[in-house]
Specification:
Blueprint lengths: L8 H22 L5 H6 L49 E2 L3 E2 L1 E4 L6 E4 L14 H7 L37 E9 L19 E5 L10 E6 L4 E8 L17 E4 L20 E6 L19 E3 L5 E3 L10 E6 L5 H6 L3 E7 L31 E11 L5 E2 L12 E4 L2 E2 L2 E4 L3 E8 L8 E4 L8 E6 L2 E9 L10 E7 L8 E6 L1 E2 L8 E2 L2 H5 L9 E8 L2 E3 L7 E3 L23 E8 L26 E4 L4 E2 L5 E6 L5 E8 L7 E4 L4 E7 L11 E2 L1 E3 L5 E7 L5 E7 L2 H5 L3 E6 L14 E5 L2 E5 L2 E2 L13
Parallel strand pairs: 1-7, 5-8, 7-14, 15-20, 19-28, 31-35, 34-42, 34-45
Antiparallel strand pairs: 2-5, 3-4, 5-6, 8-10, 9-13, 11-12, 13-14, 15-16, 15-17, 17-18, 20-24, 21-25, 22-23, 22-24, 25-28, 26-27, 29-30, 31-32, 32-33, 35-40, 36-39, 36-41, 37-38, 37-40, 41-42, 43-44
GO molecular function, one term: copper ion binding
Protein name: Copper oxidase
InterPro entries: Cu-oxidase_C, Cu-oxidase_fam, Cupredoxin
Length: 764
């Protein structure tokens, strides 16, 4: 909630004073100078832990000078204007070849990095397992703190990499999450950010964090080992007022075992690393195309051919991303820069627009590389941010409804421009905001909407492309793949992406503006309006092969076929489930000792709850199981329900996609009808029903609201997947890991009544 830029000087000073007062409270809490109990006794917090509605403290309190909320001051721009800085392309990571070698300790195969990198081999079992055998004398101790094992992955068979030999990693990535290196800013005229303002990824073991976000190009048939080092400050208070120095990287929404999903209560601490094995498994690998004979179920081999894989080609994934998922701190950590893009290439979605082999769709991309070309296939990570009076990134930790920024950011740049050739481009648009929904249209210089073709939703290809003049509302974490044909324009022409969706708070959008009104901007929501510019040019240097020049006279060989894939049919379910998201109940994340599992901020209240099959409503506890999937391969029909209250919720299901069957309370657009998705916007008091089928891996996962402020205030529910793989610990309920600065201990989880899979839903 921002006061307008035309507000009086005294109103702006009042709002800035309130923001500074809140920052002082955060600092005092972080340094343990005061406690939550002290703040309640002094009347600064309510009994529920919410910030008291007082002038000079809360942005929602009335001004001393007018009957309006105190608000948040607008971000200072330092003279920066839109479309004066060029778009950064995402920071491409380079794969490292791994050597398969039999371990000298007789524990099976390990994946060795090149010797020059001086890295421990990656293994099926965590190094925590060895550490636990002799903690006092272990060589696998955290070198930064002298505490905890060097690997954050929990010990033992439960968190061993599932199906390790079957999906053995062939390439690796080494990245560091850490403070920025002092060269991070969102525009040339904006201040450099302090190291603790942004926490981003760097390439390598000890690299400083940086913007733009990373990009990994993956392909089916080539499993990946991603080693993430936590190089954040040991002192939790060195965070510029928000963010937790513990992390777990969630590969949204890949088909991975729970130990590599990044959301199984497995955060790790400064000085440690975590090995994620991203298996590139195609869903239904145990049930469909089990002999890998279908050429459409495949990945590029790097030499013009294909590597066939098991599974259902209709479930290939494309535009994906990864982000922090430290429970109770996800919004803060992602907002600070803990995120990146992952493009998954397959036989049909090759990333080469020239190869014609009867499988490749030849979507816009480029031709200089065998696969994964990005010259004309562009990741656009869109979010909103705000900055304090000194130009440093700001986040209000006391807002439980949702956090909005007042500056549109694309790939880390404030309202950038991009030069394009007059030809077809594919754009992979990710909404990485914390609470903001977007609705995007492409507009020419005369203010007219330009037709676009949407080809995928949440990384899943449509059966047929859909022509639109405006994209549908795009909730947090949704990905929309579109193709724009710039050939109808002349060199020198300019076009804009325009956001037409207005917010007045973090509950969700309150209205959609016409293009004409959105183009003029809106003082009450500065992110409404043009936020990115395209400039038509005659030549461009290649991103894939620097030094090579693409020219407008080169023929565009890309296609947008009329059929992209085949429809997955709707079938009778084994069981149905109803999952309600809202504010029913009082929030029971804290135990009798006032602690959460995992630990949560002392200031946290828990207004957000999840209610399943009509049972009691609960806020999140990682040691509590709300849903058990008893058998891989069971087809279920789920209905997600928004319990109302004026909020919208984009709900994300981990591990599997669902085929969207029906929607109530909101329009059911063609881009969702029978489309595979992993995030569903519910609409105010609305609901969505979809078909889902789990398989291949097991363990603990979650579903949750991806308005990450709602998520952090406990709108999550744990899911337990039971795999049918013989000998796997995931054939049974898995224990809950509890990470601490001195290692991991396990607890036996509680299964809620609604977790029993064949229990009939109760009324209400």
């Amino acid at each position: 909630m921002f006061i307008t830029d035309g507000a009086s000087r005294i109103r702006q000073l009042e709002a800035e004073r309130a923001r500074r007062n809140r920052a002082e409270i955060v600092l005092a809490l972080g340094q343990e100078q005061v406690s939550r109990r002290d703040l309640i006794r002094w009347g600064i917090f309510t009994a529920t832990g919410a910030l008291a509605l007082k002038n000079g403290l809360s942005p929602f309190a009335q001004s001393a000078y007018a009957q309006v909320p105190t608000g948040i001051p607008r971000s200072p721009l330092y003279g920066a204007k839109k479309f004066t800085t060029e778009l950064y392309r995402c920071n491409l990571q380079q794969p490292i070849p791994l050597e398969r070698s039999y371990s000298q300790d007789g524990r099976g195969f390990v994946a060795k990095f090149p010797r020059s990198l001086n890295e421990l081999p990656a293994r099926r079992l965590s190094y925590h397992t060895d550490f636990s055998l002799d903690p006092k004398n272990s060589p696998f101790r955290n070198p930064l703190t002298g505490r905890v094992p060097i690997e954050g992955r929990p010990p033992g068979e439960t968190f061993a990499h599932q199906r390790w030999d079957e999906y053995f990693p062939e390439v690796g990535y080494i990245m560091t999450i850490g403070e920025t290196g002092g060269d991070t800013r969102c525009h040339e005229l904006l201040p450099y950010q302090d190291p603790d303002s942004f926490w981003c990824y760097g390439s390598g073991r000890n690299a400083a964090g940086r913007l733009p976000p990373f990009l990994i190009k993956a392909r089916y048939g080539e499993p990946i080992l991603t080693r993430i080092y936590n190089n954040l400050p040991i002192d939790r208070s060195q965070n510029h007022g928000f963010g937790r120095n513990e992390t777990q990287l969630h590969f949204h929404n890949a088909h991975n075992g729970a130990e590599s999903d990044g959301a199984a209560n497995v955060h790790h601490f400064p000085g440690t690393f975590y090995d994620y094995r991203w298996s590139t498994t195609l869903a239904r690998a145990d049930r469909i195309n089990t002999q890998a004979t279908d050429r459409r179920a495949s990945g590029p081999d790097g030499n013009g051919g294909l590597v066939n894989v098991k599974g259902d080609f209709r479930e290939i994934q494309g535009s994906m991303w990864a982000h922090d998922h430290r429970f109770f701190f996800t919004a803060e950590n992602v907002y600070k820069g803990n995120l990146g893009a992952i493009n998954m290439s397959s036989g049909p979605d090759r990333g080469n627009e020239e190869l014609a082999d009867g499988v490749n769709l030849r979507l816009p991309s480029g031709v200089l590389l065998d696969w994964g070309n990005t010259d004309f296939d562009v990741n656009l990570i869109v979010w909103d941010a705000c900055f304090d009076a000194e130009g440093q990134l700001f986040f209000d930790i006391f807002n439980t409804d949702g956090t909005l920024g007042d500056m549109p950011i694309v790939n880390g740049s404030y309202a950038p421009f991009m030069s394009v050739l007059p030809r077809k481009y594919r754009f992979r648009i990710l909404n990485a905001s914390i609470s903001r929904f977007w609705k995007i249209a492409l507009v020419d210089a005369h203010g007219r909407a330009v037709p676009i073709k949407q080809i995928a939703n949440d990384g899943n290809l449509f059966v047929h492309p859909i022509t639109l003049t405006s994209l549908d509302k795009q909730g947090i974490a949704e990905r929309y793949d579109i193709v724009v044909d710039f050939s109808q324009f002349r060199i020198g022409d300019k076009l804009n992406f325009v956001n037409t969706l207005h917010h007045k708070n973090g509950r969700g959008p309150d209205k959609e503006l016409s293009l004409a009104k959105a183009l003029r901007g809106d003082r009450t929501d500065p992110v409404v309006g043009p936020f990115m510019e395209f400039r038509i040019v005659g030549s461009l240097e290649s991103v894939d092969v620097p030094g090579f020049i693409h020219r407008s006279t080169t023929p565009d060989r890309s296609l947008v076929p009329t059929t992209l894939t085949e429809q997955i049919p709707i079938v009778p379910p084994v069981r149905t489930r109803v999952v309600q998201f809202g504010r029913s109940g009082g929030g029971d994340s804290r135990g009798s000792d006032n602690q959460c599992t995992p630990d949560c901020p002392e200031t946290s209240s828990f207004p957000w709850t999840v209610k399943i099959n009509g049972e009691a409503a609960h806020s999140f506890n990682a040691n509590r199981i709300s849903l058990v999937i008893p058998q891989a391969g069971d087809v279920e029909h789920w209905t997600y329900v928004n319990s109302g209250g004026g909020w919208d919720h984009p709900i994300h299901l981990h591990f599997e996609e669902g085929v969207t069957m029906s929607r109530k309370g909101a329009p059911f657009p063609a881009t969702e009808h029978l489309a595979r998705k992993d995030v569903w916007r519910l609409g105010e008091s609305g609901s969505v029903t979809f078909q889902v089928q789990f398989g291949e891996y097991g363990g603990a996962y979650v579903n949750h609201c991806h308005n990450t402020v709602h998520e952090d205030f406990a709108m999550l529910a744990r899911i337990q997947l039971l795999t049918g793989v013989a000998g796997s610990p995931q054939t049974s309920i898995t224990p809950t890991p509890n990470p601490t600065m001195d290692g991991v201990f396990f607890t036996v989880p509680e299964i809620l009544p609604e977790g029993v899979p064949n229990r009939s839903p109760v009324s209400g």
